[in-house]
Design brief:
The structure is a homodimer of 284-residue chains. Chain A has two helices and 22 strands. Chain A is mainly beta and 284 residues long. Chain A has two domains: 207 residues, Acetamidase/Formamidase-like domains (Jelly Rolls); 70 residues, Endonuclease I-creI (Roll). In chain A, the strands form four sheets. Chain A has a nine-stranded mixed sheet. In chain A, strands 2, 4, 7, 13, 15 and 17 form a six-stranded mixed sheet that branches. In chain A, strands 6, 9, 10, 11 and 12 form a five-stranded antiparallel sheet that branches. The first copy, chain A, is globular and about 60 Å long. At the A-B interface, strand 9, helix 1, helix 2, strand 21 and strand 22 of A face strand 9, helix 1, helix 2, strand 21 and strand 22 of B.
Chain lengths: 284, 284
Amino acid sequence: MRITKDKCVYSFSCDHEPACRVMAPAQITLETRDCYSDQLRGGTGNPEIQWDHVNPATGPVFVEGAEPGDTLKVTIDAIDVADFGVACNEDEIRLLSVEDGCADFLGRFKIPLNKMIGVIGVAPAPEEGAVNNATPGRHGANMDEKLIGEGAVLYLPVFTEGALFGVGDVHAIMGDGEVGGTGLEIPADVTVTLEVIKGWQLEWPLVETEEVFAMVVSKETLDEAVDEAVLQMHGFLKSRMAGSGLTDEEIYVLMSLVGQTGISQIVDPLKTARFVFPKKYIHA
Amino acid sequence: MRITKDKCVYSFSCDHEPACRVMAPAQITLETRDCYSDQLRGGTGNPEIQWDHVNPATGPVFVEGAEPGDTLKVTIDAIDVADFGVACNEDEIRLLSVEDGCADFLGRFKIPLNKMIGVIGVAPAPEEGAVNNATPGRHGANMDEKLIGEGAVLYLPVFTEGALFGVGDVHAIMGDGEVGGTGLEIPADVTVTLEVIKGWQLEWPLVETEEVFAMVVSKETLDEAVDEAVLQMHGFLKSRMAGSGLTDEEIYVLMSLVGQTGISQIVDPLKTARFVFPKKYIHA
C-alpha cells in the first residue's frame, strides 16, 4: 500500500481522520514532504513560506486492532530519498544535490548520507489534545533521533484506537543535536512494516537496532531527559534480565560501564536524549 | 621521568608545591591511584574509606616556560592499567579482573576495555583558589571524557606559571555519562608528552584525535554545557576555516549536519558535554 504526500497532518491527534486503514502486520510506503513542506528550493532570503505548514507527517494510518495499552512495532524497511535536500540557517537556504549515497556540500566536498526519520509517531492520549508535530513526546513525533534509520525497529506506546501512525521530516544527513536546527531536509518514500504487540507497552519510545536498544525521552531540559532515559532503561533491563541473577545495583553498574547517554536534538520545543545499551549483554 | 603515586593532590591550585619540574617538550610517566585512592578492594558494605582522599591526581608537574595565556598540549602516549579494577554502586563494591584487553564482569561475560582518563588538568586561575579534583572546569579536571584515551591530544589553557599539570582517576571502562557514578576505576601508569604552545589559548579544553576535534565544556546543567560547546566550536572552526570561503551561517549548517553533541558525564558537581567535529571537513 502507498500513501501519497498530500495526505498529511501537522499535528498528532486522536481526532484526525485516518488517511487509510491497515490490518497488521502490514507493509506500507509513505511519501513524505520535507520539513518545510517542499516550499524552499534554494537561494537567500525568506520566501513566502507558510509557517503553519511545516513538519508535515504523512498519514495518519489507522492500524486495525491497536488499542491503548498496546505497542505499535514499526520496522523501518527503507528510506528512499530524493536527489536533493535543503539545509537552512536563519535566512541562508542551501539546496544540496544527493548522488551515490553522498550530498554535495556547496561544491566543496561530499558528505556521506546517514538517512533517518525526524518525525515519527502515533496520536497522543486524548487528554493531550492535538500536539504539533514539532514537539516530541511519549507518542514519538519530532524526536530527531539518528538511530531511527533503515533497519531499525521503533516501539511506540499506543494511546488511542488504531494508533494513528504518521511519519515525515526525513533527513538525509543530521548530526546528534541538530545544533543549527537543520538536517539535510529531504522528500522521501518511507517503507515500514507495522505490527501490534498486544497488552505490553513502555512509557517512552524504544529503538532497537541490530546491536542496541535505545530509550528515547523528551523533556523541557536535556538534564531531565537524560535522567528519565536512564531510569526507564534500568526498568526495561530489570525486566529483560530478570533471570540473569544480577541485582538492581549490578545492572546500574553495568549501565554505567557499557551504556551510553546521547543527545538526539536540542532545537525543538522539548529536548530529546537517548540511553543506549548493547543487546549482547542482555542475554549474556 | 617517572612520578610516583605518593606525589598526589586532591585539588588543582596555583598554590600547590610542584612534585617535579620539566622542560617541555617532555615525556613523563605518572603512576596513578584509582579514584578511591586504592582503598576499596572488593566485598559489600562501606569500608573505612577516607572520603577526603578520593580523586587523587598525581603531580602537579611544573612545566618550565608555561605562562598564563599559553596552552599546554598533552599527548596521551600510553595508559597501562592494573590487572583489576573496582566498580561501585551505593554500597555494592565489585572487583573486576582485567586480562587480554577485557574485564571479567562478575564471571558472566567479558567487556572490552576503553581506557580513558577521568581527571586531567592544570591549576585554575588564582582567583578561583583551590578547586577540588571532582569538579571539572576550564582547567580540565574531572571531565570524564571518553575521547581522552591513548593517542589523543588534549589542549588545556594555562592559567598559572608552570601550568601545574596533574592526572588521575583512570577508567578501564566507562560509558558516556558515567550514569551509575562509576567507571571501572583502576590504578594505571599514564605516559604523556607535554608541550607548551605560546600565546594561544582556547576558553575550554579541546581534545584532538586522529579523526576529530572535540570541545569539552562543564556547566551547572547539560543544556548550558552543550550550548557553550557548540558556540566555542563555532568560534574555533571560524578561525580554522577562515580561508574556506564559508560564511558563519554555512559553518553552522555544516556543524548541524556532521557535528555531534555528546555527553561526557552527568554525575560530577558540574556536568560535562562535548561537541565533536570531523577534521576531514576543516581543510576540505
